[in-house]
Prior knowledge:
302 residues; alpha/beta; TIM Barrel; 10 helices; 16% strand; iron; catalytic activity; rSAM_sf; Pyrv-formate_lyase-activ_prd; iron-sulfur cluster binding
Amino acid sequence: MENYVDLLKDCILCPRECHVDRIKGEVGYCGETSELRLARASLHMWEEPCISGEEGSGTIFFTGCSLRCVYCQNNIIANGSFGKAIDNERFIEILFELKDKGAQNINLVTPTHFIPQIIRALDFAKKRGLDLPIVYNTSGYEKKESIKLLDGYIDVYLPDFKYYDESISIRYSNASNYRDYAKESIKEMVKQVGKPKFNEKGYMTKGVIVRHLVLPGLNEDSKKIIEYLHKEYGEDIYLSIMSQYTPLDHVNKYPEINRKLTEDEYNEVVDFAISIGVENGFIQDGESAQESFIPPFNYEGV
């Protein structure tokens, strides 16, 4: 991508549209300059079965985030306090190192604010023979215009759809317009990659999996999201209904969600999905709501 630098001089990659010059070292809401920073690059076994499988997903955790939810389990990297700067050549090397370790795909986690750098690296990597599916793992707070830049680069989209009610997205993510951006960006994702496709090992090679993390006390909002997605896309996407919400210390200011999800709450949402006809989906058991499922950010593989 020849003009990638221009996108960072007046950055409007995400819905925040900060208009900062990241090339000059300015930072917007995501907290990042044009310098690419990573916290971890390793095989990850805790994604959906068709992403991690038995061999693992080659997962790259980027520093910074354009959404920054108050309950974020990756808060240490989302707030920019942990990350190692690398250049383009090192990023390309990491992609091939993950492949050599047996990764079945390359999984880009919270990548939005580094879209130009990612495109540049993938251009070079594919010319050198990188042939793994590329997974775009995002909060769902995306501009469709930015997602369009990724057409032809991404094989599997793994967006969240976190909130339907605006008051909830404002309180927990300072994003009044989250729902509309999630809707439009997911529509563009489905348009690009089409219906789900899998290889002989059961890994998804094309498609969209929309994740929804059920939050304590917010079942009705969860149902609105699931109903919308099923009505809009049917079995053309997969839904991943997640129970892994883990209240960490920084959630103390929000007492209403400062607890784990109950089994009854989660089952109610899953039962609702089944009742409206959702068939392509993933669910979790209660053991996923543990801090041990949060990967250690220690610059492994960086």
